[in-house]
Structures are given as structure tokens and as C-alpha cells.
């Protein structure tokens, strides 16, 4: 009986060692949205997979919110790298096509989260109209 307990104890210690040695830096790799500056407006644009996004407005920039940011966003779909880490996370907006609407989440800055609209989008949903701050 002591041998079984000893073997069980050794297996448990080995399991703990193996889980502690696993690569904790293995993070999901998200595609990078490239930033360019529009020469006409001077504002940053993002592009990914043939779609160009321009600033539309800010979520959480002072307007009275009817939903929380976690209710507003969907899944993380990309990043925008900065000169200094960490990168800014890019999310889909819940209920909208990410080829048309995306939102950046910057967990360092507290000024709100920038909503971007694809250049081709002309119909603005009423639910997003209230966040509009830019005319592109």
C-alpha cells in the first residue's frame, strides 16, 4: 500500500513539474492591422485584407452609454502594433460585419475606444450614429 501511495505521489509531482514547464508565452497570434496616415485628413487609417478603415467615433468618450464595452464588442480579431508594446487590440463590434466596422481597445489610454468604419460603408446604423465624431 505504501508503494502505491509513493508512486501516486511521484506521478502527481511529475505532473506539477510538467505543467509548470509548459510554455506560458504561447499566445494566440492575431493578424496585424497596418496603420497609414491619410494625407488629406491627417488621421490614421487602418487596413487589413484589402479593407481600409477610417476613424468614425469613440465609444466611451463621454456620451451616455446604454451598453458596457464588453457588451459592445465581439471577439478580438487583430492588433495594431505600436512603437512600444503592448499592441492595441482590435475587436469586431457585436452584431456588425468586421469587414465594415471594428473598434480598437486600448487598455492604457482612458479616453475611449476608437470605432473605425470601412471606407465603402455609406449606410450608418442608428445604433452607431450616436458615436459619430468624424466626417469621412
Folded structure, characterized:
The chain has three helices and seven strands; from the N terminus they run H-E-E-E-H-E-E-E-E-H. The chain has helices at residues 2-20, 69-72, 126-129, and strands at residues 34-37, 44-48, 51-59, 73-80, 88-93, 101-105, 113-118. The N and C termini lie far apart (77 Å). Mean pLDDT is 81; it is low at 18-26.
Q: DSSP helix count? A: 3
Structural class: alpha+beta
Low-pLDDT runs? 18-26
Name the helicity range: 10-25%
Number of strands: 7
Distance between the termini: 77 Å
Taken in chain order, the helices and strands follow as HEEEHEEEEH
Number of domains: 1
Radius of gyration: 22 Å
* Shape call: globular
Give average pLDDT, whole number.
81
| Major β-sheet annotation | 7 strands, antiparallel
* Spatial order of strands in the largest sheet: 1-2-3-7-6-5-4
Binned strand content: 25-35%
Assembly state here?
Answer: single chain
Describe the protein's topology:
Layout: H1 2-20, E1 34-37, E2 44-48, E3 51-59, H2 69-72, E4 73-80, E5 88-93, E6 101-105, E7 113-118, H3 126-129
Antiparallel strand pairs: 1-2, 2-3, 3-7, 4-5, 5-6, 6-7
